[in-house]
Amino acid sequence: MIRTAFTLIVFTLFTLICGLMGLVGALLNLRDGVGSIFDYAMRLWGTTATWASGVEVVVHGAEHLDGPQHIIVSNHMSQHDILVLASVLKNLKFVAKNELARVPFFGKAAASVGTVYIERQNRKSSFDSYKQAAEKIKEGACVVVFAEGSRGNTYSLRPLKKGPFVLAVHVHAPIVPVVIHGTREVHPKGTMKVTAGRVDLHFLEPVPTEGLTYEDRNALAKTVYDRMTALLVAEYGVESPNWDPRKTVVKS
Question: What is the C-alpha separation between 78 and 107, in angstroms, rounded?
């Protein structure tokens, strides 16, 4: 209980501090990018929250973040996934569900540091949001998408949304598949309880998209899915179902 209460206090305090930094930066029309106030605010927020949680973040494959700007496609188990990624990545922008935009203060603060909100039940709106994300990638941002769409109850990978792969093909940005392991134990879905622990963050080999078209989106999604499931089996013995994106209708 002490860890949970301490985490909540620090999280709330630094959400206010970092949110105000983002809002002021947006009001003054300050530049975005690596080293900007928006970049600093995001990493400060993630770093302080993971510290308060007692989380040890162990990064694997950091070399796969070198080179051109990319799209991060990650699995999603916990709210702490966001904090862990924010503590590590530079010039980070999240694609998040539209419901968060309506959270008082947080919604506008997150938007000010570059979060793109997506209305998952509205296909046209969701693709308009991905266009916004595309602009941020062209400006040099690293965009994170939790392609499963929502948090899961087990580490077994679920079918991926198609939108991130359409986005990647559109901007010809490589996809870096990411597997996060440990956040389920730190902060499980459906509870406020936080437990200190280790979180492993695996950045896998980038999947290139240069020369691909919209027709290649399913094959691209399958490649990313297979790399993530292979890592889960090799490192943690976690099996995931075989998934054929051509036969599965998944809303963007």
Answer: 19
Sign of the CA dihedral 99, 46, 55, 182?
Answer: positive
CA–CA distance, 110 with 23 (Å, rounded to integer) = 9
Give DSSP secondary structure letters for 147-195: TT-S--SSSSPPPPPSHHHHHHHHHTPPEEEEEEESHHHHS-TT-----
Query: Around Cβ 149, how many Cβ atoms within 10 Å?
Result: 19
How far is Cα 33 from Cα 142, in angstroms, rounded to an integer? 10
Point out the least confidently predicted range of 52-56, 152-156, 226-230.
152-156
Residues 6 or more apart whose Cβ sits within 8 Å of residue 226: none
What whole-number distance in Å separates Cα of residue 83 and Cα of residue 149?
A: 17
The three-point CA angle 89-55-196 to 5° equals 160
Q: Are 34 and 106 in contact (CB under 8 A)?
A: no
Domain annotation for the chain: domains and CATH numbers: 2-236 (3.40.1130.10)
Strand partners, 118: 97
Rounded to an integer, the average pLDDT of 60-73 is 86
Q: Classify the C-alpha dihedral 180-184-190-196 as positive or negative.
A: negative
**pLDDT value at position 94?**
86
Type of residue numbered 88? V
Q: For strands 55-60 and 197-203, give the pairing.
A: parallel
Supply the angle between the helices 217-236 and 163-171 in degrees, to the nearest 10.
110
**pTM as predicted:** 0.90
